[in-house]
Request: fold
Amino acid sequence: MTGLVYKSTGSWYTVKSEKGDFIECRMKGKFRMKGIKSTNPIAVGDIVDYELEETSDALTGTIFNIHERKNYIVRKSVNLSHQMHIIASNIDRVFLLITINNPPTTFNFIDRFLVTAEAYNIETILVFNKIDTFDEPTLEDQLYMQYVYQQIGYKCLRVSSTEMKGIDELKEMMIGKVSMFSGHSGVGKSTLVNAMEPSLHLKTKTISEASKQGQHTTTFAEMYDLSFNAKIIDTPGIKGFGIVDMEKEEISGYFPEFFKLKDQCKFNNCLHKEEPHCAIKAALERDEIAWSRYNSYLKILEGDDEHYRTDTYGEDRAASDETRK
Ligand SMILES: Nc1nc2c(ncn2[C@@H]2O[C@H](COP(=O)(O)OP(=O)(O)O)[C@@H](O)[C@H]2O)c(=O)[nH]1
Ligand SMILES: [Mg+2]
Ligand SMILES: [Zn+2]
Reply:
């Protein structure tokens, strides 16, 4: 039988069968994944083959095969420095929430996020939230930012989670897909998910601020079915959108507008810095590539990733779960 992993808590996995039942499964034998040293063989989002165990009265099963993953996000294992922990797999879309100044989301932050998502092969949609709070200059900043990313080909949405603007359009984009929400703390991830699905009851900011201590506890990713035939993966307590190690030469490949031009550079190992006859620098001079993008590229090339901080929407809920115990 084939099912989808909704939750993983160490040695047990909650698998949803094709009929819609939830079955607690263990793993049979050892799995070795090609090309990755991972501390957990099975992750939320995996499609697995399993068989039911007849022995117990509770409905349990054993997993004996994992289907090939279309993508996965990882973080470094806490204890084993060279091992990876797979946070989640088979993600169709990531919605990156952006606010202009409360809190500020910079071009640099967005670009780093997009590069990681490109490397993971996950489609990102930019969601500009809190449009109800914009004054004239903020609106101009937002529209310019949107213009920069739309030019490259990224889809953008403008929403207000508190005034329910743009929410139906967002839901539309999630139908039949597995989604994640990401962005700085305070951009409105919990508020937005609550606006789409009030029954989830995610806690908003005030509670999390009160329980900032005790964040070292391990929490596990979990998949949720939403009422409009969409799924979301919540990764509480996990800061960042995973990590990707990349070679310097690879980086420009994850800037789609650079990638299109790089075959026209004189040198095929061009890093688009000081090299002569560089197609990317030429496009920059013609204003066909945004300077903000080029500056982000240079920063990533230098390996300066100090400002790369983000979280996912469930963080507050995880913190509040902790206080309930
Ligand atoms: N005015 C306005 N406030 C919002 C909007 N979305 C979220 N907020 C507020 O922003 C704060 C942070 O929201 P929260 O959902 O906790 O952010 P998270 O950290 O990303 O989960 C809360 O006070 C929300 O009420 C919005 O669209 N408009
Ligand atoms: Mg939150
Ligand atoms: Zn070049």
Summary: Residues 129-130, 132-133, 160-162, 185-191, 204-205, 313, 316 surround guanosine-5'-diphosphate (ligand 1) (CB under 6 Å).
